[in-house]
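REVIEWER CHECKLIST
Item 1: Sequence provided? yes
Item 2: Single chain? yes
Item 3: Sequence as submitted:
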Amino acid sequence: MNFDAVHDIQRAYRKVVDSMSRPGLISDLTAEAAKADGQWGGLPVTWVLALLLLDTEVTFCICSQREPELTRLLNQLTFAARTEPEKADYIFVLHDAKEGDLLKALQGAKVGTLADPHASATVIVESGELSGDFELSLKGPGIEDESFVRIPLASGWLEARAEKNAEYPMGIDMLVVDKNNKLLCLPRMTQIEEREVLLWDM
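Item 4: Structure as written out by the authors:
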């Protein structure tokens, strides 16, 4: 593994910031993910984000069939402490998580308080292939008019996310990644709506 804990993390950080400040922008972390630890059981891009986000000052949890093993690995690499989902600063929902784990993570994630809205959770979820297809409409800060994306996740996630973000400034942020090492960020202020598909008579 030739991952550079300084330069690769800095490049990844800039891409995360770009995608967070411009919701709908799909960033490519292939160069960084190519150096991921082979022991990691999730997508390589998730491993990069874990090294970027976790340290001794934050807590995390993992939803995965390999949770004990992967938790130990991240603890050894970052010294971040594992905790229960409802207390975690970062919740990782991997592709092999049990059915329903994503909804439970979203519903149980902490949203902070009015006095300290930043004491909330960020949910990192592994998705099907991300694309700019006209499936979901994104509006809000950082988007000039509206942006369109396709995010293949378990049904019900939009409603669960909207409910958690109903009382701004409290809420949760999401980072969505796929097997192609693509990253899409959904800040709590981003409004998401499903687009109606119009069928034209021929």
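Item 5: Key structural point noted by reviewer: DSSP finds six helices and ten strands in the chain.
Item 6: Recommendation: ____
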